[in-house]
Amino acid sequence: MPEDLYKVTIDNITIEVPPGTTILQAARTIGGDVTPPAMCYYSKLEDSGGKCRTCLVEVSKGSEKDPRPMPKLVASCRTTVMDGMEVKNITSPRTLEARRGVVEFLLINHPLDCPICDQAGECDLQDLSYEHGAEGTRFEFQKRIFQKHDIGPYIQLHMTRCILCYRCVYVADQLTDKRQHGILDRGEHAEIATYISKSLDHDFIGNVIDVCPVGALTDKTFRFKNRVWFTKPVDAHRNCDKCAGLVRLWLRGDEVFRVTVRRDEWGEVINAPDGTPAWICNECRFEKKKESDWVIEGPTHINRHSVIAQGHYEGLKMPKEFLPEVIGKKPRLFLNIHNVSEVNRPDIDLSLIEGPATSDDFEKPIND
Ligand code: SF4
Ligand code: FES
What we know:
This protein is of the alpha+beta class. It has helices at residues 23-30, 93-108, 124-132, 167-175, 207-211, 282-287, 323-327, 359-363, and strands spanning 6-10, 13-17, 56-61, 74-75, 85-88, 155-157, 181-184, 191-194, 217-219, 232-237, 246-252, 255-261, 295-299.
């Protein structure tokens, strides 16, 4: 083993990583179920992690030099590996029990409004609850409520859904030069808020939407327009003088419903060719909502375990048409279902309507 690498065993899989690597990063190099979930850690945001406790793991052997186990479960995003360390994630009943407890705590104040939440289908808390949550709640008290804050024309804040992971605060701190929002108060009263109701107008502030693991910060221009699993994600780019212009378009037909950063398998923004995170600017995110604004590269690869993979096909291969060979000619179409039907009002772009569509939007005469 080269001298400057540490050997670490996670769920009986041994790998070698450089000193200073956290247990979570080491587990990510193995991938799959061995990797603990992370709700607050975000490798592209300095100082993130250590808030949510979903990444707790058991260290059954501290190191080669000091093999004693660590007495308490540790946050894998904040604990660095030691040479010879042995870690248990899914092989530790203690860890799984603790994770169930953490999910129960996170859900104590969560409104569970997934049926109307725009984050449904791509919410980390939803996934975590399915995997580690209980089907019932023991919480009998009233959930937290907050005074509503308007944080500008593009971003919707639902404080009741926030899990106080601080990711959006780090984005505002590290990507913009004038942070106007942060976490106010402490304990049960802690909330994301703007100081003196200022709206957030920095070019890169839209990225708080993509880092939020739950539906606390959502895109106002996409709000209630579509369920994410009905849209088709494609990777696209454009020449932008503010950002790398590498985005993911969420299409329905040829309408662009939403523009987001491209995410990797850990749900984090990918790196641009120059090695820096490919955060996108507000102009690309909120104003370029026409397919013609973009050069489309191809369908996004979606993990087949994700609900978004529904009806999303890559590298589609059509079965061979054998009927023309058998009958010796092309079969006649009885009904051309590809004709555009006026019933669906193809002249109305849902993605361009301000806010949720209402019956008024459809009462306008055709070709108005
Ligand atoms: S609003 Fe979202 S990103 Fe910000 S602290 Fe709450 S959960 Fe985290
Ligand atoms: S991801 Fe480690 S504490 Fe939140």
